[in-house]
Amino acid sequence: MYQASPIARVLGALVGRRGERGAVVGRNVVLLGLTSLVTDVSAEMVSTILPLYLLYSLEVSPLGLGAIDGLYHAVEAIVRVSSAYLADRLGRMKALAAIGYALSAVCKLGLLLAGSGVSAIAGVVAVDRMGKGVRAAPRDALVSLSVPRRALGAAFGVHRALDTTGAMLGPLVAFGLLAVVPGGYDVVFVVSFCVALLGLAIFLLLVESPAPRAEEKEAEGPADNVERASSPARPSGIASLAVVGAVFGAGAVSDGLFYLVLQKWAGFEPRFVPLVFVASALSFAALAIPMGRLADHVGRRRVFVAGHVLLAGAYAIVLAAQPSTALIVGCVLLVGAFYAATDGVLIAVVSAGMTEERRTTGIASLTTAVSLARFVGSLGFGAVWAAWDFRHALSVQIAVLGIGVAASVMVWRPRA
Questions:
Q1: Rounded distance, CA 278 to CA 165, Å?
Q2: CA-CA 20 to 30 A from 236: which of 13, 68, 177, 288?
């Protein structure tokens, strides 16, 4: 008989387990979440340090930072489509996801060879993003296949909460190592590689590949009427979701760029920037499950749009107010709430409206549209920052998010 791990028991107490009355998630979702947790510890050990290193040590311009950040999104988006197509055609979701995890792990060693070359670092991290693109859609499909459709929001909330716990621990581990070995970036890369191998082992040895199941028919509540007004299963629903998601994606600044802006606005020391990542990860982890449940009750798209309104609020604080500790904390909490409201919700919308054989491609197609839009947004943000200042760049982003809200009202209006 399977004995749940301590983390699984805690999650079970919070959200239930399959086989129990009212259960929503099971063992496989928890193990997929643990895989993401460990993998994110490895990834965030590196990613939270690189922006500071590029800007302050190598003196890369804001335009260069935006271009590199946009490149990561573009590479991931292109690979994501191919991976999803292969997963749907071959039905080997776990195998493809494993390749992605392995590729990202190897890239941690590649950073040892990159040295201080900006192009080499960009290339290695781009390949790392390629690994993320390979694994993302098959992994999300595994999550969706592991629970009843009615529980998709909660399942993705659990997965994202564990994923974000890793994002919180990664920066702490990195700076702990650098405190012991000042300037020891190579030490961080080696430890990051070892942690990535642990995540790959959990995935290969413990995660199951669920068999396709018959689509479930469930009673619709008030929230479902809005959800099905333009169902993702229809071409018009796919297109409208892609358009709105892309506009919002172009308006959302990457964490690395926004936290550098926050540092310049508030004037705190650059070495504290990784702690901002930790704080936003805490906010995300605390809100991921409640947001998932809220999305299941009031409608996933409403929560998705509301999350972007919260993000615009964080940008507006930087534009309109004088910096203070309370406002810095407020900005960070709003960013965490934005991710909790949007990251798993978009995938849950797609999963609920797609058949089993098309689900992985549907997830990849929509997230690809968002990723490509973020490439444009990151490049544009860096260009405006370089030409004027970060305040002008944030003003543009707020305007784009406003367009996204207007577009969502127009294309997601319930049909009579």
A1: 9
A2: 288
| Cα distance between residue 12 and residue 23, in whole Å | 9
Give a yes or no: residue 404 inside a domain. yes
Tell me the C-alpha distance between 253 and 176, whole Å.
28
Say how many domains are in the chain.
1
Alpha-carbon gap, residue 340 to 280, rounded angstroms: 10
Helix axes 118-145, 152-180, angle to 10 degrees: 150
Q: Is 68 helix (H, G, I), strand (E, B) or coil?
A: helix
Helix axes 27-47, 6-15, angle to 10 degrees: 110
Neighbouring CB atoms inside 10 A of 68's CB total 23
Interacting residues of 387 by C-beta distance below 8 A, sequence separation 6+: none
- Rounded distance between C-alpha atoms, residue 162 and residue 207, angstroms: 15
User: Within a domain: residue 277?
Assistant: yes
Tokens describing residue 328: 């810095």
Cα(318)–Cα(252) distance, integer angstroms: 15
Q: Which residues, in sequence order, are CB contacts of 254 under 8 Å at separation 6+?
A: 69, 73, 374, 378
Q: Is residue 22 helix, strand or coil? A: coil
CATH number where 358 lies? 1.20.1250.20
Q: Give the pLDDT confidence of 103-137 residue by residue, as tens digits.
A: 999 998 888 888 777 788 888 888 888 888 788 87
Give me Rg for the CA atoms of the chain. Answer: 20
The beta-strand segments (E) located in 112-223 are none
* Helix (H/G/I), strand (E/B), else coil: 273: helix
**Domain for residue 60, yes or no?**
yes
- Tell me whether residue 411 is exposed, middle or buried, using C-beta atoms within 10 angstroms of its C-beta: 0 to 12, 13 to 18, 19 or more: middle
* Structure letter (DSSP) for residue 55: I
Distance in angstroms (rounded) separating the CA atoms of residues 338 and 314: 10
What is the domain extent for residue 287?
Answer: 26-211+225-411
